[in-house]
Amino acid sequence: MLWMMHQQAPPIRSVAVFCGSRPGHDPAHAVAAGALGTGLAASGIRLVYGGGKIGLMGVVADACLAAGGDVIGVIPEFLRAREVAHGQVEQLIVTDSMHSRKRRMVDMADAFVVLPGGFGTLDETIEVLTWRQLGLHDKPILVLESGNWQRGLRAALEASVSDGFAAPETTALLDYLPDVAAVLQRLTTAPAAPATPSARL
Length: 201
What we know:
The chain has helices at residues 2-8, 27-43, 55-66, 98-108, 119-133, 149-162, 180-189; strands spanning 14-18, 46-49, 71-76, 91-95, 111-114, 141-144, 175-177. It is α/β, with parallel strands linked by helices.
C-alpha cells in the first residue's frame, strides 16, 4: 500500500530557491545558479524566488527565463528598490512584509533549494527547516554544496544537535547535494509532499 501511495504521489512542479542578492566572491556560485535555472526550465519545474535581478537571484532567474522556464518572483514592497525587482519576470508578487514573502514562497513551492547567500538566505533556510521540524510541512530542503559556503551552515546545525538543543534525527530534514545535477536528479525523481495549510505558518 505504501508503495502504491508513493507511485501515485504527484511530481515536484514548483521549487523555491533561496540565494543571495549578491554574487559572492567565488564565480562558481554564479555558474551553479545559472545551471540550476536552466535545469529547472528544461525539467518543466517552476522557479519561485526572491524577485530581484541582482546577485545570484538575478542569475538563476535570468537563466530560467532564457531557457523558456516559468518564473515567479516574490518581493516585499520595501525591498523593490534595494534588491532591484526583476522587470522581465511576468509574475511578480509584491508583499507587505518579509514574513508574508516567505509564507507565499512556501505556499507555492513543492520543494526548496538553497544556494549560497547572506543573512536573508540563512533566515529563509532556517525558517523552512524549523517549520519542517515542527511538522508544518514535509517538503524537501536541498542545500547545494557550492565551494565552502554551506560548511558554516552545516556546522551550526550539527552543533545544535551535539550540544543537546536539537534531536539527532533533525539532521535528516535537509539534504546536502554535491552539484546541480544531483539537485535536479532529486527534484525530478522525488514525489511532491502534501500541500501545506498556509494558516498554520
